[in-house]
Fold Transporter, major facilitator superfamily superfamily protein.
Amino acid sequence: MANKKLERFYGFFYGWLVAFTAAMGGFLFGYEIGIINQVFTMHPFKTTFDIETYDPNTDTYTKTGDADDITGWVTFTFLIGAAVGALVVYYPCNMLGRKWTIMLGGVAFMVGVAMETVAGNIATLYLGRVVAGVGVGFMSCCVPLYIAETAKTSIRGRLIAVYQFMITIGIFVATCVNSLIIKFYGDSAGDSEWRLAFGLQFVPCALMLASLLALPFSPRWLAYVGRDKEALAVVSKLRGKPDTSEAVLAEYEEIITAVDEEKAIGEGSWLELFIDPAVRYRTFLAISLQFLQQWTGINIILYFGSDLYAALGFSEDMANIGFPLINSAVNMLATLPGMWLIEVIGRKLLMTVGGVGMAISLALVCVFGEVGSSQDTLDRLGIGAITFILVFTIFFAATWGPVVWVYQSEIFPLRHRAKGNSAGTVSNWTWNAVISKVAPLILADINYYTYLIFAGACLFMAIFALILCPETKGLTLEQVEAVFGQSPAAGRANKSSAAAEVELGELAGESALSAPPSQREETDTSAEQ
């Protein structure tokens, strides 16, 4: 009895440890977001790259005519690099394995960071941003896939959501570190301030690379390349049970069977993602959900929040340090209830509630947030706007932030999973880049209607999720196949929960009659990846 309890504890602890270690890739992306928002407030950075000019006679800084364009490109180049990385990651992911591909992304990120840190002209900075972005693109696509292939069905959603949680931790840590740099290390006469901000990214990246060496390979990938004994050993280690146990052997056999079937059918092509009736609707969902996630407007707050807070009339310290710290902390903490709720109320309801909550919050920001408020109206308008920006952040962090990544990783069949995840992730980075490019222009001439546009987008997202997204909570990947069917038209996606439960109940009953006892006792997601 004691040994069984120890095995269960080890399997539980090790599964979470693997997820958090792999999700360090998300931490690096979050750290980058936290950095760039505050680097844009550093005068030495802005004078180095012609975002503003300094007049020593009057000790004043003047914004250049190209300022909005340059800041947009600094963010845009990183995100385009990430989109390219997500597009091509499929090849190393299958050839080298998920683990080595994540590490390859980490190495690319370090090279890009080095270029950012030593940049003396805008071209070098742009190139460094692209290279770092490619690394993050690798990790953003491969990390959720790796976690899905090592997680149990019962906590699969929570473990994949760890990726989003680590993004928020990265944003918070970077905001704290850079707030200290701004407060105590600011030097208007030199450029060490912003170079230190960029250079410190080496520390978490090096820690991630060292930690990844200790992680196992994906058992599914090991089986795919013919390393069956290693695959069995990894399954045993992940579950905390001996490799002779019935549960481990059953899961191992399921992995081998799934891999053999995939090899017999062949890998799905990129074209099939869009023309195959069995998968094109899922591709539509993955691309659309990632597109809609970006149109919440969250990244305008994350990338350019300091400018937004300053426009509301707050002091420089509050705009550059105070509110970014508060918002990043709220973003991080609000992700935790989302990680719990995703396996309680499900993906569909969480996205629906989140969309409505964000829409209401942004509508109220429209009411309170008169940009360029005079000081006498600041207390009445600015505080109200900030409050509902934070409420908006809570809804995003608990719902659309993590859920989209989880949902995308679950809905594709085995032979299309890597490419399907890549297609959805490319959508995320592409629209992230587009919004980041237009954000400075939006902020330069922002008004009530801007918030109303994003509020309308959030309301549309809620309706989209409610009508078009089948629920996947608590389902094995075979059951997800049953929900979508071989011809997943909108009609099937829209069928009621009751009808879905009847169908899945019949499927479970048939499986129970034919499956051995060990398979009925435990079903693991990694067997299906």
